[in-house]
Amino acid sequence: MKQGRIIIVSGPSGVGKGTVLKEVMKNNPALRFSVSATTRKIRPGEIDGVHYYYIDKPRFEKMLENHEMLEHAEYAGNYYGTPEKAVNDALAQGISVVLEIEVQGALQVMLRRPDAISIFIAPPSYNELGRRLNGRGDTPPDVAAERLHIAVQECLNAPKYQYTIINDTVSEAAAQIQAILTAEACRSEYTTIQLKEDE
Ligand code: 5GP
Questions:
Q1: Ligand 1: distance of its center to the CA of 11 in Å?
Q2: pTM over 0.85
Q3: Residue of minimum CA distance from atom 2 in ligand 1
Q4: N or C: which end of the chain has fewer CB within 10 A?
């Protein structure tokens, strides 16, 4: 059985990583998306248990205390974290898991799981990211400005990832991630050659 891999995907808010990942997941039904826990408020259209587990701060802190998180971070005033058990259960079944997480959490996973694949999705330019953030409709201007500031700091961390993708168009970015996944699956340490004669 092929080993499952952790696939870390980060990128600034508004870069379009959700859309790119949706495309990648559509073409790779065997991939599993890790559902994070967060203390931020649920947005219109989001579903508890699908997009996130929406929990309060005391419950989040309890999970941290019980070492239930693979990683966690504070982002724009809210906590976000990856429940570790679901990730480990998938990997044990040979299923690869996508973690769509911000940089601080990604760095923790890189340290704890050195075999994780790490991908940074960057915007084509600062101005374009500003346009995408403001055009999204669900983000008030002051929040968008804060996120643009955070975005620049986040992009400075791109060299810490194994791969960087520039999201010019969704289809090209998705194709590049596909190429990474295909190459990673062919790495010798994850490939077993069948050398015995068939029975
Ligand atoms: P949003 O509130 O827009 O859904 O997410 C804000 C940021 O938090 C995004 O950069 C997203 O990738 C990140 N994020 C989502 N889940 C997690 C998580 O479990 N851990 C960490 N460290 N970041 C997360």
A1: 10
A2: yes
A3: 40
A4: C
